[in-house]
Amino acid sequence: MSEQTTLNRALFDEVMVPNYNPAAIVPVRGEGSRVWDQTGRDFIDFAGGIAVSCLGHCHPAMVNALTQQGQKLWHLSNVFTNEPALKLAQTLVDHTFAERVYFANSGAEANEAALKLARRVALERFDETKDQIIAFKQGFHGRTFFTVTVGGQAAYSDGFGPKPGAIDHLPFNDVASLKEAFSERTCAVMIEPMQGEGGIIPASDEFLQAVRDLCNQHNALLIFDEVQTGAGRTGHLYAYQKYGIVPDILTSAKGLGGGFPIAAMLTTAEIAKHLKVGTHGSTYGGNPLACAVAQSVLDVITTPDVLPAVEAKSQRFRDGLAAINAKYHVFSEVRGMGLLLGAALNADYQGRARDFLVAAAEHGTMCLVAGANVVRFTPSLVISDQEIDEGLARFEKAVAQVVAG
Fold it and tell me: Domain 73-301: which CATH class?
């Protein structure tokens, strides 16, 4: 029996913890915005590993960076720094508001660092009573116990014992409730400029400005979780640049490494000084391999032709989805920014987002869901028009199948 026949979906149930329920197909190879499974069948990738594969699969710049660095230096302890980490940090500082960078391995880790830093700043600048963290219902910030508690979906944090305290969840885009919740006790607000897992819901300009103003008034730190919206996903390197509202701390992961695990917390020198030597750390954070790959990703994203093209590709998706909807009447709206789009299901198809995802895979397109009522699209930022069109043609067949029952 060949290895391929034994390394199948059934084996997952025998050897893996059952916290996931993966599809039956097992992808084995990718190139650009196409993926092939064990049988050689191809799929158009509109999922991008959940907004991670921002340059698609096996992009030559990334392969080259990984290969070259892999022959030099893989890992050091944080007793040392290294050239790829220094170069990547400099690039992030050059292209953002930030003056200081902390590297980690995942969005949850970057958010954990941001929250710990915010609490530390409040304690050292004020006192232990300044501890309130404001977050938002349906928000998502990771799966560590601190970040999952700050996240606004109790189902993810219930059932694990006592939760971290002094965390309040407010309705998203509701200025009145925001003003009511703020006080001198508030130490930080953590917010996604556009809620991802919560249904692809952009913050309004008015709401984000109110958050910024209230943070200023009450000496609270504004943390932007840009794990999903960052690395060019919205057509700007980071979404805060689209809004013109600057946070105090920003977290980045997912697309930053284009598929290689890396995350970063960005902040100012004045705030960063509160994470003194020994107060926080990460064994793998800032390792040379990850930083070299992330550098290659940023080098491509920040070339003059990539980000400006994101909006045109976004419009091509919107036009294609509108044409499908004109025939089949399944979506109430398509929302989002750039290439982070959500097709919200109308009243007739509530709770059936996964049906569309499964049917899409059957017809050779990979997509995602964002809750039970939104089909999510997060393709490569450099996906070709031809791949968009072909993927949408396959997706239309999936929609037809779901509608036909």
Answer: alpha beta
